[in-house]
Amino acid sequence: MSSQWKSGPMGNREPFSAFICDDSALDVLRPVVIEMGWQPEKCNKGGLRNAIQSLSISASPAILMVDLSESGDPLNDINALAEVCEPGTVVIAVGQVNDVRLYRDLLSSGIHDYLLKPLSASQLRDALTQAQAVFASPRNAEGEGDREHVATAVVGTRGGVGASTLATSLAWLFASEHQRSTALLDLDVHFGTGALALDLEPGRGLTDAIENPSRIDGLFIERAMIRANDNLAILSAEAPINSPLMTDGTAFVQLEEEFRQAFDMTVIDLPRNMLINFPHLLNEVNVVTLVTELTLASARDTIRILSWLKANAPGAHPMIVCNRMQTGAAEISKADFEASIERKINFQVPFDQKAAANAAKLGQTFIEANKGSKTVAPLRDIAKTIVGVAEDDGASLDEAGKQGSMLGKFDLKSFLGAAKKDKAAAEPAE
């Protein structure tokens, strides 16, 4: 059975370790551990505090058993254990306090099970077998394999067009107004603002996933993601800016696979450089929400990204969202922009600096902080369209593209040259 663990999803991690306070409990545990095919030497004398000290300097096992008998504040100590315990570890607590409230609180904190002393061999055997089952079939509860899942990647054509603001607002809408369990994956590993917009600490979940993709499974997702509310969880990072991103993208694909099993919706805040470096990220994405604005640079890059998507992600339906719309303040007109990209803009979101400042001040997503504002109506329409994509297979988005292609091709070079001449003509001669 131990060889099964080494070749399983936990990679080279030790399969089991225990920290037990008393000899009588250890005497019951060791024969069961041998029966499971593990090393009895991994049954250590000492309780939860010993476990914390040990795991602060060594790797966590796949299954960890800790004794709470000598702990004066079990919940607080369990939280301290979580600080040194790597995501993906199944923790079984042992104790002598027979309290339903404590049991529920421990389970809520992420503990897999709580066993009462005195321990019995059958009790231990059942608990360890159930812990093993977590890795044998993570998150595959009945019916979950058939869950309908919709994924959207939100990509900005330029920096500052508001792609991240839209991504967090969409995730909040899916979770709160559409009541869909939603995962938000912020792939701006160094400068992402997803957690910041939700007033959360990013944690180490995404960094751990990138460093150890073999550890990604259902339990890892459950423990590594940060909960914003009952239906919304985020996986993000705030990596040191002197640490370059070293990955082949395997972790991202595995994360997407686990999200499909665990959530109804996935929102990926996808920086342009990640889009180009890891095209396989879009293999299972239903909608690419391309956020742009009415500028020459955005028009040029919208054309380039649409062309790239056609060649590299033919299964993903592009949806054009023009953000920060201001009457009379655009570099080019909406009609000229649509002519240049040869398709219609699907949605327009007005510019509202006051609403953006309000969201930042409240530590909330743009949509949550401004629910009553007329400026958020397009955001609700975008969310509704994406939720419905699974039903119509993106037909409405494709139709928008066909309508746009009926427009004449707009020559950006000529337009840019004319714009420069107009500007020069308007300047007073020296």
From TrEMBL:
Gene Ontology BP annotations: negative regulation of cell division; phosphorelay signal transduction system
Nucleotide-binding found in the keyword field: yes
Domain Response regulatory: start-end pairs: 17-132
Entry-linked InterPro entries: CheY-like_superfamily, P-loop_NTPase, ParA/MinD_ATPase, Sig_transdc_resp-reg_receiver
GO CC field: cytoplasmic side of plasma membrane; cytosol
Key words, A-Z: ATP-binding, Nucleotide-binding, Phosphoprotein
Keyword ATP-binding: yes
Molecular-function annotations in GO: ATP binding; ATP hydrolysis activity
PROSITE patterns the UniProt entry points to: RESPONSE_REGULATORY
Modified residues (4-aspartylphosphate): D67
Protein name: Pilus assembly protein CpaE
Native organism: Aurantiacibacter spongiae
